[in-house]
Amino acid sequence: MAKQQETGSFDAMLYRQASEALDRRFPATRWLAPLRKHALERLAHSGFPTTRDEDWRYTNLKQVVLRSGEFLKRSTREKQSAARRVAKSELNRLLLPGLTDITLVFVDGVYQPELSSSPPPGSGMRIRTLATVDEQEREPLLETLGALAGIEGCQVTAFSTAFLTDGLVIDVEADAHVPAPVYAVFLSRTADISTHPRILMNLAANSSACLIEHHKSLHPCLSSSITEIRCADHARLKYFKLQQEHHSAFHLASQHISLADSAGMQAVHLDLGSALSRNGLNVKLNGDHAKARLHGLFLADASSHVDNHTRIDHQAPHTRSEETYRGVIADHGRGVFNGKIIVHRAAQKTNAQLTNANLLLSPGAEIDTKPELEIYADDVKCSHGSTVGRIDTNALFYLRTRGIPEQEARRFVIRAFGGEIVSRIPVPHLYRPVSDILAARLEHADSKPGPKQ
Amino acid sequence: MATEQKNIEQIVGEKYRHGFVTDIEADTLPPGINEDVIRFISDKKKEPEFLLNWRLKSFRHWQTIREPDWAKLHHAPIDYQDISYFSAPKQAADAPKSLDDVDPKLLETYDKLGIPLHERARLAGVAVDAVFDSVSVATTFKSKLAESGVIFCPFSEAVQEHPELIEQYLGTVVPYRDNFFAALNSAVFTDGSFVFIPKGVRCPMELSTYFRINEAKTGQFERTLIIAEEGSHVSYLEGCTAPMRDENQLHAAVVELVALKDAEIKYSTVQNWYPGDEQGRGGIYNFVTKRCDCRGANSKVSWTQVEAGSAITWKYPSCILRGDNSVGEFYSVAVTNNLQQADTGTKMLHIGANTRSTVISKGISAGRAQQSYRGLIKIFPTAENARNYTQCDSLLLGDQCGAHTFPYMEVKNPSAIVEHEATTSKIGDDQLFYCRQRGLSEEDAVNMIVNGFCKEVFRELPMEFAVEAQALLNVSLEGAVG
Question: What is the mean pLDDT of chain A?
Fold first, then answer.
C-alpha cells in the first residue's frame, strides 16, 4: 500500500522484538503485555502518520521513525542501572527547586524510589507506580489506561503504549485538597534510548491538586509520554509541564484531560528543548459549567521543530475555555501551532477564546499556525485570533530612547513576551526559577544577529 | 427564543424563487465522458489543434487523480459518466448578432429572473455576455468596448479570433494539473467569457455576465479568462441563478485572471443557484477554481462574492501576489440554509516584497446548513514586509446549523505581519432587545443586524450588485423573522 510506504514504514520485526523483550526485562509490569500487544497491532495496522495526514501536515516524523528502532533496541537491552544511579546532588542541580514534598523521579524510564518522596498517609492522595499496584487493580487499570487517550485514534499514542513499562497512578480522594504539587520528573541520562512516561491521575469529586511534569534529557533520545487526567464534579486541577529535552532529542507527548460538572483546570505548558517535539493537549469539557484555562509558550531555535496541537471539546452547556499560546522562533527554527475548539450541539451558552501570538526573530524562521473553530451550537460566543510578526519596532525605539542598547532592548521585549505565560504558572514560587531558565534560553536563541530592523 | 425558532422554520420554508425551466431544444450529447466526447466538443467549436491537445492532456491527467476529500462537505458520489458534457441551444449555428435576434423565450427567462437584459444593458450601461447553458447567445455593447480596444466576448469566439492570446495565457494561472475539478474543466469546458484590457486602458463600463444552467443533467463547465495589461483597470461582474431541478447538477468552473504591472481587476460574484429543497434534494454542486496571478508590480486584485445558492459550494478565490507591492483582497458573504453546505475561503500567496492582502469573510448559517471558512495565508521567504489582515465572522441562526473556521497561516519571513481574527456567535439578545425597544419589528431588527454584519462586504460590490445582494439576503431572511 502506498500509504504504508510513506509512513517511513518502521521495522515491524524490530518493534515486536523490542516490545516482547519488555516482558522479560520488566516482570513487574508483565501484566501490561496484552495492552502493549494490542497497541503494537494498531500501530502495525495504521503506521506512523505522514505529512499527508491533516493533523501532521507540518510535522514530519520520518527522522523519529527512522531512529526509533535503534533507540528501542538500546533501551530494551541489558540493564543500565549504573547510568541510573544518580547522586542526589546532581539531581538537585537538574530539578526545579522547592518541590521536595511529593517528588517522583524516573531515570531512563525506570522509577527511582530512593530519589522519590510520596505524599504522607492521610493527605488524601495516593500514588503508586504501575509496577507496584495491587493485583486486583490491574484488571480495571488495563481498561482505564488509554481510555481517554484512545489508542485507535492516534498512532503516536499507540506507539507510546506499545512500549509502556511503568508509570504513575495518582488518586486524589473526594474533598481532599493537596496543597503540595506532585512533581513528576522524567530524566534521561543515557544516550539513544526511548522512554515512554505515563501518568494516570484521578481527582475525585470536590478535590484539588497540582501536577508538575518535567521532561529532561542530557543526550539525544526519544521520549513519548501520555498523561491522562480525570476530574470529577467540582474538582480543581493545576497542571504545569516543562519540556527541556536535549537539543537533538525527540519528544512526542500528549495530555488528555476530562472535566465533569463544574470542574476546573489551569494548565501551563513550556516547550524549551528538543530537536523535534510534538505536544497534543486535549481537554474535554464534559460537565456543565466546566472551565479550562490553557497557557503555552514554545521556543524553536537552531533548526528545531516545535509543534503544539491543542483541542478543546465543549460537550456540555455553560462551559468556558480560554487559551493563550505564544511562540518564539529564531534561527532556522520552525514552530507549528494548531488550536482546535469544537463546540458540540449540546454545549449551548459556551464561551471559548483562543489567541496565538508568534514572534519571528530571524530570516530563516518559520511559523505555521492554524486556529480552528468547529461550532455546532448557536448560542455561543467563540473567537480566536492569531498573529505573526517581528519585534515591535515602536517598543524597541522606546527602549532605545531610554538609553538601552538595541540587543538588550530586544531581550527585554522577548522576555516580556514570554514572561506573560510564565507568570501563569500555578505554583508561585516557580516564577523566578522558570523565568531564569527561560531568560537563559531566549538569550541563547537571540544571540545570533537578527534581521535589520 | 420561541420567535427565533419559528423564524428559522420559515427560512427553511422559503421556496426557491427562480425555479422554472425554459423549453428550448438543445443539441445535447448523451451522458458520459471519454476522449471522443472531448474531440466532439473541440470539433463542434472548431478549435485549433493546440486546444484539443491541451484538453486531451487534461483529460488524461484527470483520469489519474481522485476527487479531493479534505473539505468539510458530504455528498453522494458524483457519477461523471452520468453527466452530459455538451448542450447548446439549437440556433447555435446562426448566433444572434444583437439582442433583437435573441430567442424571445430566452429574454422571457431573464424577465422572470428580474434581470431584463436589454433594460439593464441600456439603462445601467452594462455590457452583458449572457451564457445560456453552454453557448453565449447575447453579447452587447461590443462595439463600444471595441472603441477603447477592450475585447469582451464568449470564450469560444476568442478561441477563433484571438487564438494567440488564448495559447499564451490559458492554463498559466490555473494549470490543468491544479486540482481534480480544474482538470475536468480543462478537458470539457464548453464556453465562458474572455476579457482583454489593453495597456493603459480603463474599461469604460462594468463588464457583466449572467450565467444560467438550463438543460437538465448537463454540467456547466465555464472557463473565464481575464487579462489586464499594464496599467489597465477592469471591473467584472458575474451573477447566476438556475431553474429548479431534482437531480444534482455539477458545476466546475475555472476563472483565471492575469494582472500585469499596475493593473487592477475587480471581480464580483453573486451566486444564487438552486440550493436544493428542504430535504436537501437537488441543488447545484458548485466546485469552482478561481485564481488571480498578480504578475506585475503594483497590481491589484479584489474578489468580492456573495454566495447564497448551491447545495454544495467548494470555492477558494485566490491571489498569487508575485509582483512587488501587489495587493490582494477578498470580501465574502456566504449564506447557507436548509441542508446547504459551503466550504469556501481564499488563498493569499505572498511572494513579492511589500505585498498586502485583506480578507473579510462573513458567514451566515441557518437551518441545518454547515459552513466552513478555509483560508491560507502563505508568506514566502522573499516577501519582505508582507502584510495580511484576516477577519472572518460567523453568524448562527438556529441550533441545528454549524459554522467552522480553518485558517492556515504559513509565515517564512520575519518582517511579515499576519493577523487573523474570527468570531462566531448568534444575534445577541441584547442587540435585538435594543432594536425592538426602539420600535422596530423583530424582522426589521434582524434584517438590520444581518445587513450591518455584511456591510463591510456589500460596500465593496458595484452599485448594481449591492442592490441585488441585499435583495438576495432579504429573500433568505424574509421568512426568518416574524
Answer: 90
Q: Is residue B437 part of a domain?
A: yes
- Is B120 part of any domain? no
Q: Which chain B residue lies closest to A386 (C-alpha atoms)? A: B420
The ipTM (two decimal places) reads: 0.86
Among chain B residues, the shortest Cα distance to A366 is held by B412
Task: Give the distance from residue B278's alpha carbon to the nearest chain A alpha carbon, in angstroms.
Answer: 19
Is residue B377 situated within a structural domain? yes
Contact B419 A451 (CB under 8 A): no
Contact yes or no for B417 and A348 at CB 8 A: no
Summarised one tens digit per residue, pLDDT across range A89-147 is 888 888 998 888 899 999 998 999 988 999 988 899 999 999 999 999 999 999 999 88
Mean pLDDT by 10 residues, chain B (482 residues): 46 50 61 87 87 93 90 86 71 46 51 47 42 46 78 86 92 92 91 90 80 49 92 86 56 93 92 77 87 94 89 92 95 88 94 95 89 95 95 88 93 94 88 92 84 86 74 62 40
Are the beta carbons of A380 and B409 separated by less than 8 Å? no
In a domain, B398, yes or no: yes
Q: State the first-to-last Cα distance of chain A, in angstroms, to the nearest integer.
A: 50
What's the Rg (C-alpha) of chain B?
Answer: 22
Read off φ and ψ for residue B295, nearest 5 degrees.
Answer: -80, -35
Nearest CB neighbour to A363, from listed B394, B410, B414: B414
- Best of B412, B417, B430, B431 to substitute, by most chain A Cβ atoms within 10 angstroms, is B412
Q: Which of A16, A19, A11, A24 is nearest to A78 (CA)?
A: A24
Report how many domains make up chain B.
1
Give the domain extent around B159. 2-93+148-478
